[in-house]
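Schema walk-through. Below, the input block comes first and the output block second. Nothing else is stored per chain. Lengths vary across the set, and this one has 336 residues.
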Amino acid sequence: MADYPSILVLDMHTGGEPVRVIRGGYPPVLGETILAKRRYAREHLDHLRRMLMFEPRGHADMYGALLVQPTLPGADLAVLFMHNEGYSTMCGHATIALGRYAVDQGLVPKVEPVTEVGIECPCGLVRAHVEVRNGVTGRVSFDSVPAFLLAGQIQVEVPGHGPVLTDISYGGAFYALADAGAFGLDVRTSRTRDLVDAAAALTAAVRAQRSIVHPVEPDLGFLYGSILTDGRERPDQGPSANICVFADAEVDRSPTGSGVTARMAARFQRGILQAGQSCTFESVTRARFTGEVVGSATCGGQPAVTVRVSGQAHYTGEGRYWLEPGDEIGKGFLLS
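--- output ---
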């Protein structure tokens, strides 16, 4: 079946969130820019996303990283991110995994104590910093694209819940940020299903009531998902727990790298923290990322910041996937 080649993958996870790195067998992804490649993959190769992300090879919360030819100067590799709904513009947990992958696979020369890796994402060039000790890779940090608070402390009318105080913030993707307490929930103790339903309701409400426009690139102007928090926003309150629900109600097991970026940008631009202050964020798996505002920036005239996010990725296995002739179910399915 020529449309379904044999595809090589290496599986990783960051904080429990899967990263299926597609490392071989994929057809060429055409396009002069990374966003053009993203459009090409969506329009011509989406059957392969469904085969690799959906059951029986994946599941509703599977996440993938397709390596493609870089188009930006300074990029050591380029990536398209994929999930249950399509192709995201940024993914911090996958960037952390890919930083380690790039060093271990020799895509960049290994340098101790830190190796830098340029990763071209759909939102722009991201710099990863990979710790290397005695030849072994460890914790990874990345410096974000310019991140900013689009709308701070706005009231969004969420059906069944009433008005909810919300930030809309950009960290390579746009997120709605709200306290889970506004829904009568606690991100540490409430059922995941209840948190998912609340976050999905917030996402739908924001999409219906607000226009999301990126100041530079129209392809980046959409609400990716919602992040419900424990309400702790000041650094002196200690680690803040959150749950990110994105795409088609997909749950991030990690603290969400682009979400941490968005939360840090919102905190900084609301005057809650200063540059150089480190904050810790915890996920539903109790995995932790740290975030720090490391510089000022602009994005199409919009005041912005650069955020450094740090975490740890691990390898879980590798495989080769194909579709046997006549296997219609094997093309991929999800149960609603």
